[in-house]
Amino acid sequence: MPVAIALRKAIAGAGLALAAVACQSNSSSEKTEPVETTGANATYLPAGTWRGVLAAQGQEIPFLFDVEAGNNNQPVAVYLRNGEERLKLDEIKTVGDSTTIRLGVFDAALVVRTDGADKLKGAWVKYDAKDPYRVAFTATKTTDTPALFAGDTKSASMFGDLRRGATFRVEFRDDEGKTYPAVGIIRQDSTNSSALTGTFLTTTGDYRYLAGNLVTKGGQEHIMLSTFDGSHGFLFDGKLAKPGNINQISGDFYSGKSGHETWTATLDPNAKLPDANALTGMKPGQKKLDFKFPSIMEGGSISPADPKYKGKVVVVQILGSWCPNCMDETNFLAPWYEKNKQRGVEIIGLGYERTTDQKVAAQKLLKMKQRMNVGYDLAVAGEANKDAASQSLPQVQKVLAFPTTIFLDKKGEVRKIHTGFSGPGTGKYYEQEVAEFNKTIDQLLAE
Asked: In what residue span(s) does the Thioredoxin domain sit (predicted)?
């Protein structure tokens, strides 16, 4: 079984609601809302396939999900569908006519209720946001394979490049005029000629699994792609510069409640990003990391100088439980560690969370550990922003992204710092990521 396919199945089985690119955060909150408990005379979500819509910034961000029912028609699982990905959610509580669906490892939920026959309404709530974060949500029961975007849907088969998988050189620009490069991958869905899948890779991560359609709006052709992974709702609306021609695309990128950027894409099969291993490094004269952070297990601490790591190759993973790219990497690292730890390799996960309360942060990371079967050590390293991460690791030039992966040799010296992670939604780029990781470990173990 190809490794990418195996990981996709593992993601679904883990119940992970997962990039944002660079998984960046500068927010913290200790607010939570109680999870409702199942009550008598509850109105349960009907089983079947639904087309959900998040209403934000005057746009609709659509996604599909399936409700699986058990005894007495009570829902036992909800599966978010993003292209070929299925994210299983199994923390579902209903009281009266209201249902709370916790979104995997993330401190977020869909809170919904029925709204007439085959309709739902409610909100997507992020409990760990710095400011109150609620996005209106509606859903309509549908067939198994509906068009994700409404409108005059056109077949992607009319574009040979999309049938084969098209690669684009992309530039994103934020509302302040700052730009960053990306590589876009858009392809015709393998099972539905009118559907599209794809993603965008940047130097700090990828936008994970995107899905959508080629539609005509106002007489112009648009490539429409979206995703909802529990932590982020994304919409990419790209207008073709010329009818029937995908060589040039330009449009808007909407992220959740308020994020907005524009983007332009040029068809380019040779498009590539700067080397992820050369974006940051150690400061002059520095060879080793020097840290000691509290373990998520009460009373313990973790340092690369601990006897457990002496004489071993050590991977230091900079992550946050709120970060979908980090969860993609964790979903690779967790089973990899179980298969390879006997070779003399260890992993230390440094968690940067959206709270200043160490106990709350430890609880969030412990939930991630339990849901994703993480066997390696996890520590509470600080608050969830890149500046805080950089300050906590003063030997490193700068932490540019969550996740960042640091490779230590048997002497404890840093040999490589890899910024970002290309997850399974990137296809061949993910395969390359895994191959490079294994090559680096093999080389360090052979020394």
From this structure: 282-446
Cα distance between residue 4 and residue 11, in whole Å: 11
Query: What secondary structure does DSSP assign to 180-225, as a single string?
Result: EEEEEEEEE-SS-TTEEEEEEEETTEE---EEEEEEEETTEEEEEE
Please report the DSSP string for 58-101 in residue order.
Answer: TEEEEEEEEEEE-GGG-EEEEEEEETTEEEEE--EEEETTEEEE
pLDDT at 110: 98
Which domain CATH number covers 373?
A: 3.40.30.10
11 lies in some domain:
no
CB 250 within 8 A of CB 267: no
Q: What is the value of pTM for the model shown? A: 0.90
Shared domain check, 308 and 223: no
257-272 residue pLDDT tens: 999 999 999 999 999 9
Distance linking the first and last C-alpha atoms of the chain: 31
Q: What domain range is 179 assigned to? A: 152-267
Residues 319 and 402 in one domain: yes
421 half-sphere exposure, CB direction, 13 A CA radius: 27
